[in-house]
Design brief:
The chain has three helices and 36 strands. It has helices spanning 12-23, 27-42, 194-198, and strands at residues 2-5, 49-52, 82-87, 96-98, 101-109, 124-134, 140-150, 163-165, 168-172, 177-182, 188-193, 212-214, 217-220, 229-233, 239-243, 255-259, 262-269, 272-276, 283-287, 301-303, 306-310, 316-321, 334-339, 354-356, 359-363, 369-373, 379-383, 402-407, 410-415, 419-425, 430-437, 443-445, 448-450, 456-458, 461-465, 469-474. Helix 1 (12-23) packs antiparallel against helix 2.
Length: 477
Amino acid sequence: MLTRVQNLNTDSSDLAAMFSRSRAGSFSGRLLLLLVTFLLLTGAWGAPVLAEDWPQWQGPRRDSVWQETGLLTKFPASGPKVLWKAPLNVGYAGPAVSQGRVVVLDFANEEPDIVGLGFQQKKIPGQERVVCLDAKTGDKLWHHAYETTYNIQYPSGPRCTPTIHDGLVYALGAMGDLTCLRLADGQVVWSKNFVKDFGSEVPVWGYAGHPLVHGDLLIVSPGGEGNSTVAFDRKTGAVRWKALTAKDPGYSPPTVIKHNGQEQLLIWNTDGLFSLNPLTGAEYWSLPIKVDYNMPVMTPRLAGDNLFVSGVEATSAWIALGKAESGGGKSPTAEIAWRGTPKNSLATVNSAPFVQGDYVYGSHVSGPFRCVKLADGAVQWEAFEPTVGKDLGGQKSRSGTAFVVKNGERFLIFSETGDLIIAQLLPEKYTEISRAKIIEPTGTAWGRALVWSHPAFANKCVFARNDKEIVCVSLAE
């Protein structure tokens, strides 16, 4: 959503004078009035400022692109200005920003060392919360809490960024609690529980597939017999269709692409990558792309007539989308052009890479940030600075994470170190322009401190959270 702030320098007497002159009957006067009316209605009078919301996972178009302008090009020596901070409980879930409100999930519990549990799995009772804050001040406007008991590895809170659409918030908790609430006051509109309502089994690392709004549908991935993907009426919660069978839904969010004039819903679960009709759930095609540890995580990336998908160890694939069979009412097709190996390509874990031109940029499972050529998977370069920092390598850098967002001709990279980086990503090299610490890394994994939560970019600000707080930092020039 675009919020327009208008600066009109014309007062009522000026407009009255213009109107009076136009009534004199001259063609030029009437033309002037029409022009002024158009400028006022469109906001083109004066110098309007466009502020883009971040209402869901990876931004308004789910493509990791932020179109905001008027941003600083380099951080000041003292760091960017912190506008506000607000307390939160533990959570991996990133915030969503819409209509002047910030919505984020957390988990309140009595476990003294929940952040340090890592791969340990135990039952932890507590409350998941959906928290709504004022985007300008950080003041809490409302919160909705419900009881739940975690029984997952890395139990430090919910995973999913809320999805905000048409005045409603869709929040998915780590144990499969799906709630639709009113953005205005937090009142529950409808709710589901994947285990109780669909007989699903909670994945070992909890539910992480960010809810997707597509038209009048809300699409999620509960898992189970015939319930790997479910589409609800987004206003009422009624089931509109169900599709696929997969005991474990994996962690990749439902994704809609448009290729050759036809929309496809991409579902990547532990059985493979599937293309469905987003309106009916009917299957178009499937490919047996399975990931080690049952960990399909990343959002599939569309690049022209191809898709790129990537997972831990050697699971990466460059997929050619069929042209001859697409469009004209015929079903889309796809085939694998090449598969990655341990020595080439990009094996992602926690964060989606960014495809630009003939290359893809992202975090590799062993820790570095890589540039890979899409034609054959050849690694062009790698650097540890965007992920775990330049002084850390080896096993301690495993699962190094950096969230990549494009802004104009440069990139904003949020490192797991809590740093925001302004960088240039080119096939030849990685160039770091500026870096600033915006939040402390309070989580732990592989013996290092980190923050694994995708920030939101909106209103010329970055909104980032850790296991203790959420901060709003100005990026305005």
